[in-house]
Amino acid sequence: MVKLRVHNLAVSLDGFATGEGQALETPFGHAGGRLMEWFLPTQAFVEMSGHEDEALGAGTTGVDNAFAAATGRGIGAEIMGRRKFGPQQGPWEDESWRGWWGEEPPFHSPVVVLTHHERPELEVGETTFLFRSLPPVEALELATELAGGLDVRLGGGATVVRDFLAADLVDHLHIVVVPIVLGRGVRVWDGLEGLEERFDVEVTASPSGVVHYVFSRSGSRPGA
Amino acid sequence: MVKLRVHNLAVSLDGFATGEGQALETPFGHAGGRLMEWFLPTQAFVEMSGHEDEALGAGTTGVDNAFAAATGRGIGAEIMGRRKFGPQQGPWEDESWRGWWGEEPPFHSPVVVLTHHERPELEVGETTFLFRSLPPVEALELATELAGGLDVRLGGGATVVRDFLAADLVDHLHIVVVPIVLGRGVRVWDGLEGLEERFDVEVTASPSGVVHYVFSRSGSRPGA
């Protein structure tokens, strides 16, 4: 069965996936880079970003990398919120924005961008962005069709993940708890009381200080 | 130096140390026993509660027990909130209440109970309860005096721990994150943004599914 998977969703100890004050230069708000510090040194990220770093070399190969490397495996399409695609809100005033990722985005597959403001699809390198106004269940149907038998990744941000969890559409949820207290921002867990009842949970602490939670759906998806 | 230590403070993934609807029969509110499930099978708890259980035997001796067993080591006094002592609020209408713990409470040392309603001290077995209306720094001074050179334990509940953390008085904080989403109750992390900057943090995942966080003060206590 095709699965809907979330990978590398980093949250603070107090449950914030991003800080306050998100903007073009501060995509995580006052959290800065702290939520993704565990990810940047991994071999998977170094390879994805396409250049070796003098300080990082070829990247780490421990447990953080093991999880990071699973991100793209067997994925045929992604669903993301509009804010992951770019900083604009409301009607598209600047259609020259082609995402954060330059001329070869790391997706190499169709990406469904959820937005109330539809626009023509956009090809960047091997990635096609489709801008659609769809409720979670229909977005997943479309992405599943585009994925050609492979899994669909739910790319975030936090509110999009929360919406799909609330609709009980997520099969695999990889959450990374970073040992910092952010105090304010976008909460991941709101409205998800009892979430654990629908999943098997496996927990792994990393020497980097983060904790990897893997929630795997215990039964099959309702209606699937 | 005498330390102020918190042990076994269990919180849900979304940061609640107790659920909604606390009462005499439901001290953790709608959380029920779920936050302390990891603790009950440990040898330390089995010994503390004074009777072996047929199902549990002498108790587990793994990582959960290693942490549970540190609770009483080198402790000379405890500070607790009034709600940990008993369910009454406001003026003491029933002074016959002698705590939850029967005739031999597990403290075996002086216990400072923080309350706006002072009353004469109470001896139960080897434990003396002192009922004092004191701000955190003075409560710690009193407890330190009573502890005779040993450490002081901050016994909870969550709001009391939060107050002492906000006043920067805690030296050792052992938090146990339980993989459940409670959705409502008393939040531990509120008002503690940046807490991690004052501590070294060590993280250990247990096969039981909980994660043990140990925050150790990185420098010395201000004013100490």
Automatic annotation (TrEMBL), chains A, B:
<dbReference type="InterPro" id="IPR024072">
    <property type="entry name" value="DHFR-like_dom_sf"/>
</dbReference>
<dbReference type="GO" id="GO:0008703">
    <property type="term" value="F:5-amino-6-(5-phosphoribosylamino)uracil reductase activity"/>
</dbReference>
<dbReference type="GO" id="GO:0009231">
    <property type="term" value="P:riboflavin biosynthetic process"/>
</dbReference>
<protein>
    <submittedName>
        <fullName>Dihydrofolate reductase family protein</fullName>
    </submittedName>
</protein>
<dbReference type="Pfam" id="PF01872">
    <property type="entry name" value="RibD_C"/>
</dbReference>
<dbReference type="InterPro" id="IPR002734">
    <property type="entry name" value="RibDG_C"/>
</dbReference>
<feature type="domain" description="Bacterial bifunctional deaminase-reductase C-terminal">
    <location>
        <begin position="8"/>
        <end position="195"/>
    </location>
</feature>
<dbReference type="InterPro" id="IPR050765">
    <property type="entry name" value="Riboflavin_Biosynth_HTPR"/>
</dbReference>
